[in-house]
């Protein structure tokens, strides 16, 4: 997740300037204020990613309004709404009484009369918020990752089944699955253009990320919530919160066949200050697949280091490249090919397809694969943290629950030590 996605003002400018978006859905009745065809959207989590999702949701359909906001930090409302109003004007219909603050704000948004909810809080809260939205019969855009531990994943898998039974759309924030160049190259891989897949090399090498120094009056819980990405119980570590994009594409290349086991390493080399919580700053994981194929994942969050964000897939008939840093999508070998089609805005496409599915009564349900991709990343973290070989079966049966059952600003923060491979146990 790069910085521009978190910056709502940049998103606002991009939304105004872009001409590369695919066609926008037009419902039977054009937007002219609230009417029987209006889809009401509720945003849960009003930071940069949530604001961006709301920006795209309002652009995806001509008769949609933003109806309610929820966050634990009320100062985020003004920034969020300012950017949205610059672009979408009277599509933003959030009255003061529908700005909900607190740890129960998600439920108040869901109960406010919305049709669609956008879930963009820290990942720890995702299973809880998904459960509430699905139980209430709402269509959902769900940011990745979908959980931080195996109990959360098991819950999401069950919730995805309920969403399917209720004919609800559940669209994932694994954005590359909505990128036309990626759809083309991974489609060819899955169709056999490079033969049987034997190995996949994928990277997510990036720099550091934002952090907020502690302020007077903040409890330990507030400090961690404001710096959530540095705490495993809130974010899952950066292999789960960020590098999971590359892991998801690795799984895509394998046709979403699940790995058998994982072995790996990782640690904290440069980001060792307590300000950075207890997460690692690098990972290297090897995944084994049922056909003998291997997936090699490398991720890093370290300043002044080489950047890389790509997936190379090697098969018995050739090699496929999907580069996320520049437009390079090609196949070399017996069936050479290079993508030359549209370069779409994948974030917008997520929402275009979500709202089209609602209008056409043809629900999209990404629940199972988005849970599995998140779990593959969690499995890699388990392997790195413990230094042990972790099987898929054992990972899915893990009883380790990272966070508390309920959270308030007065809740004691979980006592989690920085993992020590060979000493940290698998639970």
TrEMBL record:
Superkingdom per UniProt: Bacteria
Domain Gfo/Idh/MocA-like oxidoreductase N-terminal: residue ranges: 39-164
Domain GFO/IDH/MocA-like oxidoreductase as annotated: residue spans: 189-320
Pfam families membership: GFO_IDH_MocA (PF01408), GFO_IDH_MocA_C3 (PF22725)
Classification via InterPro entries: Gfo/Idh/MocA-like_OxRdtase_N (IPR000683), Gfo/Idh/MocA_oxidrdct_glycsds (IPR050463), GFO_IDH_MocA-like_dom (IPR055170), NAD(P)-bd_dom_sf (IPR036291), TAT_signal (IPR006311)
PANTHER family associated with the record: BCDNA.GH03377, OXIDOREDUCTASE FAMILY PROTEIN
Name of the molecule in the record: Gfo/Idh/MocA family oxidoreductase
Source species taxonomy: Bacteria, Pseudomonadati, Bacteroidota, Cytophagia, Cytophagales
């Amino acid at each position: 997740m790069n910085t521009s996605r978190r910056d709502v003002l940049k998103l606002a400018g991009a939304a105004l300037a872009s001409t590369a978006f695919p066609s926008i859905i037009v419902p039977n009745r054009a937007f002219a204020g609230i009417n029987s065809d209006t889809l009401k959207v509720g945003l849960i989590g009003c930071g940069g990613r949530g604001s961006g999702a709301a920006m795209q949701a309002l652009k995806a359909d001509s008769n949609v309004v933003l109806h309610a906001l929820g966050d634990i930090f009320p100062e985020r409302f003004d920034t969020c709404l300012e950017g949205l109003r610059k672009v979408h004007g009277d599509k933003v219909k959030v009255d003061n009484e529908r700005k909900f603050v607190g740890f129960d704000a998600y439920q108040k948004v869901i109960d406010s009369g919305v049709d669609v909810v956008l879930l963009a809080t820290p990942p720890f809260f995702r299973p809880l918020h998904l459960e509430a939205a699905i139980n209430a019969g709402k269509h959902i855009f769900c940011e990745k990752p979908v959980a931080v531990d195996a109990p959360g994943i098991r819950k999401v898998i069950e919730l995805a089944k309920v969403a399917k039974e209720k004919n609800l759309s559940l669209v994932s924030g694994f954005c590359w699955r909505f990128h036309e160049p990626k759809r083309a190259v991974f489609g060819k891989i899955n169709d056999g253009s490079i033969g049987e897949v034997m190995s996949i090399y994928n990277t997510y090498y990036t720099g550091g990320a934002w952090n907020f120094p502690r302020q007077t009056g903040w409890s330990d819980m507030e400090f961690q919530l404001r710096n959530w990405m540095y705490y495993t119980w809130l974010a899952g570590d950066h292999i789960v919160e960020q590098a999971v994009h590359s892991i998801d594409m690795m799984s895509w290349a394998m046709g979403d066949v699940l790995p058998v086991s994982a072995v790996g390493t990782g640690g904290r080399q440069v980001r060792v200050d307590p300000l950075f919580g207890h997460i690692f700053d690098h990972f290297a994981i090897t995944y084994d697949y049922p056909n003998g194929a291997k997936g090699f994942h490398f991720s890093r969050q370290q300043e002044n280091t080489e950047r890389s964000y790509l997936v190379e897939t090697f098969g018995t008939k050739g090699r496929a490249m999907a580069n996320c840093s520049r437009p390079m999508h090609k196949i070399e070998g017996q069936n050479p090919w290079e993508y030359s089609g549209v370069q779409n805005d994948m974030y917008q496409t997520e929402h275009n397809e979500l709202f089209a599915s609602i209008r056409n009564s043809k629900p999209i349900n990404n629940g199972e694969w988005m849970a599995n991709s998140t779990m593959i990343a969690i499995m890699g973290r388990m392997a790195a943290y413990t230094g042990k070989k972790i099987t898929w079966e054992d990972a899915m049966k893990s009883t380790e629950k990272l966070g508390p059952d309920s959270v308030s600003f007065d809740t004691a923060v979980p006592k989690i030590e920085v993992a020590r491979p060979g000493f940290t146990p698998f639970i």
